[in-house]
Write a structure and sequence with these properties.
By secondary structure, this protein is of the alpha+beta class. The chain has 2 domains: 62 residues; 157 residues, Glucose Permease (Domain IIA) (Distorted Sandwich), CATH 2.70.70.10. Helices cover 28% and strands 29% of the residues. The chain has 2 helices and 15 strands. The structure holds zinc ion. The site of zinc ion (ZN) has 5 residues, from loops.
Length: 228
């Protein structure tokens, strides 16, 4: 009987102890949660501030670059637009610093992206000679299956006069080869989505003495283009 009372008392005591202790634990936990939440809010505010500072900074840099070194004897009039006339054309990404759609890292976009219809005709902007040719992935030439440029997929680079070169990337088809002579307006390929690309568009670059410049210096005068 006495044992029985002792056991009951013991159970009761441990229950009370547990009740008290778990209460304290719960309070401690609550306080921890509260202070962590405050810290998270504070960090979120800091992130917001930094993000807005970064975007301000990006805006000051966006689309800037290279335009100062254009040879005097070269005017926009010498250029044909790199895509044969299409109903749908729009600039989808400008030249300059941008956030990579793949890595979200700020990188230099060396050309301008022109979104258009699938397989729109790509033309050489000026007379020149093909200096680089990567047939698009899957292209078969003389029994060889090509894999395309790892970044640009089907791509052509053309050398013009005055140290000027142009590059046409992500094409689904190419119609000329290395060392071919091309003339202004000649169809050299078709728009595609090859290489690292988020949708069909022409990635177009202009080089002067090996360095890229903002292609808009040459393309902006075209009136039939809707700019977004
Ligand atoms: Zn691009």
């Amino acid at each position: 009987m006495r044992n029985h009372i002792l056991v009951t008392l013991g159970i009761l005591l441990s229950f009370l102890y547990f009740l008290f202790f778990s209460n304290t634990l719960a309070e401690q936990k609550q306080e921890l949660v509260k202070s962590s939440t405050n810290q998270v809010t504070e960090l979120e505010n800091q992130i917001e501030l930094l993000t807005s500072q970064v975007s301000d900074y990006e805006n000051t840099l966006y689309g800037v670059g290279g335009a100062s070194s254009i040879p005097e004897n070269l005017t926009t009039g010498d250029f044909v637009f790199p895509i044969a006339e299409e109903d749908f054309l729009r600039y989808s990404s400008p030249y300059g610093l941008r956030r990579s759609p793949f890595t979200n890292i700020l990188t230099q976009h060396e050309g301008v992206d022109i979104a258009t219809v699938w397989r729109a005709q790509v033309v050489s902007v000026s007379d020149g000679v093909v200096t680089e040719h990567w047939p698009p992935p899957g292209a078969v030439i003389n029994g060889t299956v090509f894999r395309g440029h790892p970044v640009y997929g089907g791509v052509l680079r053309i050398r013009h006069d005055n140290g000027l070169e142009t590059l046409y990337a992500h094409m689904s088809e190419t119609f000329v080869n290395q060392n071919d002579i091309v003339s202004a307006g000649e169809v050299i390929g078709r728009v595609g989505n090859t290489g690292i690309s988020t949708g069909q568009h022409l990635h177009f670059e202009i080089f002067i003495n090996g360095d890229t410049v903002n292609p808009m210096v040459y393309l902006s005068e075209l009136p039939e283009f809707e700019q977004n």
